[in-house]
Amino acid sequence: MIAASSKYRDANPKSYKAFYDALGEAIEAINKDKRAAAKAYLELAKDTKNSADEIYAMISAHDYAYTLAPQKVFKTAEFMNRIGTVKRKPASWKDLFFPEVHALQGD
Known about the structure:
The chain is mainly alpha-helical and 107 residues long. The protein is built from 5 helices and no strands. It has helices at residues 6-11, 13-32, 34-45, 52-59, 73-82. It starts with 5 loop residues before the first helix and ends in a 25-residue tail after the last helix.
C-alpha cells in the first residue's frame, strides 16, 4: 500500500495523478508477465543477491496480489479502532482512501 496526505494530493494534483497512473501501469505489467517483472526488478534495484527465479517465486506466491484495490484494510482499521489506536471507526474501507479507488472491489 502507498500513502499520501490530502494536503499533498490537493497541492500537487498533476504529480499525484502521474504517480497513481504509473502505479497502475506497473501493477498491470507485473500481472501481465511476472518473469519479466522479476528480471526488471533485479536490474533496476541492482540486486545481485537474488535470482530471477527467486523473485519470480516471491511475486507469484498465492498470498500476494498486485492490485490498486485495497485488500483487508477495513478489518485492520476496525481492529485498530477496537484497541484504541484509531479513534474514529470508519464506516467503510472507502473512508480510508481517495475517490480514485472507490469503484474498485476493495475490502
